[in-house]
Amino acid sequence: MNDAEMEKSRRGSGAARRRNGLSVFRLKVIGAVFMALSVVGVAFVPVLFGEPSADNMTALTVAVVCEIASWCAVPIYSWLVYDGWRHTHDRARYAGRLFVVACLAGLPYDRIMTGHWFDARTHNPVWGLFFAYVVLVAVDWIARRYAGAVRWLMTVAVIVAGVLWNVLLQIGVSQRVMYTGVLVLAFVMVFYFLSVHENTMMFTAGLLGAVMCITPGVGVAFLHYRRDELGYARPWTKWVFYALYPAMLLAGALVA
Questions:
Q1: What is the 3-state secondary structure (H, E, C) of 48-91?
Q2: CB contact at 8 A, 202 and 220
Q3: Residues in contact with 95: Cβ distance below 8 Å, sequence separation at least 6, in sequence order
Q4: What is the DSSP code (8-state) at residue 174?
Q5: Statement: the pTM of the whole predicted model exceeds 0.85
Q6: Which residues cross the membrane (predicted)?
């Protein structure tokens, strides 16, 4: 299935539900803007305003606001991973793309966050997307082959394993408050299990986002206005978004 066929499939499935709204392209743009705020807050604010500290409240305030606002991207990218899983014709290749992006983002992310080009104590948020995707594929595989108590026991075990991966590997941990990897996994599971109940899904996701420091709930609001359409003006546009986060991190690492 090529991009044109995927677009027709999306339009066919989403036309009855919503004709106007945010396409996948627009959601990615919005997510990228919020994502960029995190890099700005960590790498560029110290250069522009000085090192954030109690003695430099301007820099501290700007850095904190940028970081908190960036959390709006979490549910957006969680949805994009789930949506990609639904529509991709090659799930292994899709997982490979996430894996490559996570690897490319690793070194500059470590540089920005720890001051070293490699630090095994922390891992960038793209790994959270990758692990959420792996768990999603596994949970769906279990659902198609097992039923009853066996299915749910296996499902819970896989989800718990995913949570432990994120916690132990410190994936996307921000301000020691936001565990991005865990939250991504939670959002993806909400989208998977409640996808046939749109209002319940959005309400649950919004509540989850609100509980997790409020701003992820704002990100869910953008998803409410989505439409099931790619919206790319050029076929190569989607590849730009794969490179965007590593490029942002690299720019920040060179400045920091």
A1: HHCCCECCEHHHHHHHHHHHHHHCCHHHHHHHHHHHHHHHCCCH
A2: yes
A3: 130, 133, 134, 137
A4: E
A5: yes
A6: 27-49, 61-82, 94-113, 125-143, 150-171, 177-194, 201-224, 236-255
CA 146: distance to chain centroid?
29
The tokens for 200 are 């319940």
Question: How many angstroms separate the Cα of 167 from the Cα of each of 29, 56, 127, 128?
Answer: 28, 32, 12, 10
Which residues lie closer than 8 Å to 172 by C-beta, 6 or more apart?
123, 124, 125, 127, 128, 166, 178, 179, 180, 181, 184
Contact 226, 4 (CB under 8 A): no
User: Whose structure tokens read 């997982």?
Assistant: 95
Domain ranges of the chain: 3-255
Per residue of the chain (256 residues), give pLDDT as tens: 555 555 555 555 544 445 679 999 999 999 999 999 999 999 999 999 999 999 999 999 999 999 999 999 999 999 999 999 999 989 999 999 999 999 999 999 999 999 999 998 899 999 999 999 999 999 999 999 999 999 999 999 999 999 999 999 999 998 778 999 999 999 999 999 999 999 999 999 999 999 998 999 999 999 999 998 999 888 889 899 999 999 999 999 999 7
How far apart CA 133 and CA 130 sit, in angstroms, is 5
What tokens were used for 98? 């996430």
- Amino acid at residue number 145: R
- Please state whether beta strands 173-174 and 178-179 pair in parallel, antiparallel, or not at all (unpaired): antiparallel
Q: How far apart are CA 46 and CA 26, in angstroms?
A: 30
